[in-house]
Amino acid sequence: MIVFKKLRNKYVIWHANRVKIPKFTPSIIVRKKAIFSGRVQKVGFRLEIYCIARRMKLTGWVRNLNNGSVEAELQGEESQINFLVNCMRSLKRASVKKLTIIDLPIREGEESFTIVE
């Protein structure tokens, strides 16, 4: 099981680093909570969000929920957050059945993106 998880994580990181991130027209800074429901746990979903968010210099966090969903708070340019959310919805190894997005107030001084265990 541990060997499988290491292989999966290696693949997820490789895949996330291959995502072509377009040049974005600057847009307003926002903070959004995204809750992804469906087959989103045990497929490297959190790690993929983490890797892409870090590449785009977004801040916030991502975690698994007890009900099988994945929750993320994402802060950065709105166009970048929309791009990341669409990337996650189109992942082949996961299946997002429901997506809930809630606008949140900006969190001043936040500097990084983390995985919350």
Automatic annotation (TrEMBL):
Entry EC no(s): 3.6.1.7
Gene Ontology molecular-function annotations: acylphosphatase activity
Top-level taxon: Bacteria
Catalytic center residues: 46, 64
Keyword Hydrolase tagged: yes
Reaction catalysed by this enzyme: an acyl phosphate + H2O = a carboxylate + phosphate + H(+)
Family under the similarity heading: Belongs to the acylphosphatase family.
Name of the protein this chain belongs to: acylphosphatase
